[in-house]
Amino acid sequence: MAITEIVKGNGDDAPKRFGVRIGWFVAIWALSTVVFFVMASLLHLLVPK
What we know:
Elements: H1 2-7, H2 18-46
Transmembrane segments: 22-47
Protein name: DUF2474 domain-containing protein
Pfam family, one: DUF2474
């Protein structure tokens, strides 16, 4: 996975361009938000009313 190649070490190999860093931040934030809502939806389906 690409992110593990970027974050290992002390950050010397991190992207230097600000736009790339913002892109990674937005991508990780969006993915975690999607995972949260998917898990909440599945939990909502499993828990009886």
